[in-house]
């Protein structure tokens, strides 16, 4: 990088002797000192600017992962500009350096396009926040509770205790279902009663259970309706709203309570049955069961 100043110094020395060489050496020394000062002072300023950016993002309540990433990115860009500036102070043309950096950046981007895609989606997930830590979601076709979100992947805890590490590119490019976002969840049960049972009485038993369970929300209001006339039962559909953290317990407790109250009230919950009719004379000749 110092070829041009050294060649110039040699030319001056050949033309003007030792005094010219000394002057050129002084100029090179001054350029080196200037370049070092640019680097030292510039890196101090770059560090302070990067830290200021991180604090500003923290005051804006931005995610710590994203604020740290922006801080490091800001510092890296400023350092790269400082290096180019310092080389310019030394007398090295900046255009070839900028072209080289651009070429290197393009090559790195092509080699790491999958990684960069995950990183870009990580930034977008943190900014737009389609889900937060602790939410139960369906993301990338996987259901689970969000444990952590970073720039490269999202960690989900599955209901059976397993962990799923989902690349952010897959999470962001697929549909995301957030079960906690609105603060309430609705569950649905289907209960069958016998054709001879009183439908109104069966509905009243379930509505009484709504009032007894404080976990079932009044708004939106729960309800029970006749949904179908099955082969062996009249099907009632039960819908109720609860808080996300009470979803599973409330649903299972209500189902058990319906069974117990129906038993006490004498309301049947039938199971599928089949009737077989044997017609005399339909059996083949020679059968032991046939009587001519």
TrEMBL record:
User: What is its quaternary makeup?
Assistant: Homoheptamer.
Q: Which InterPro entries match?
A: LSM_dom_sf, MS_channel_1st, MS_channel_C, MSC_TM_helix, MscS_archaea/bacteria_type, MscS_beta-dom_sf, MscS_channel_2nd, MscS_channel_C_sf
Name of the featured protein: Small-conductance mechanosensitive channel
User: Which subcellular locations apply to this protein?
Assistant: Cell inner membrane; Cell membrane
The membrane topology of this protein is: Multi-pass membrane protein
- From what organism does this protein derive? Rhodanobacter ginsengisoli
Boundaries of every Mechanosensitive ion channel MscS C-terminal domain copy: 188-269
- The UniProt record lists the keyword Transmembrane helix: yes
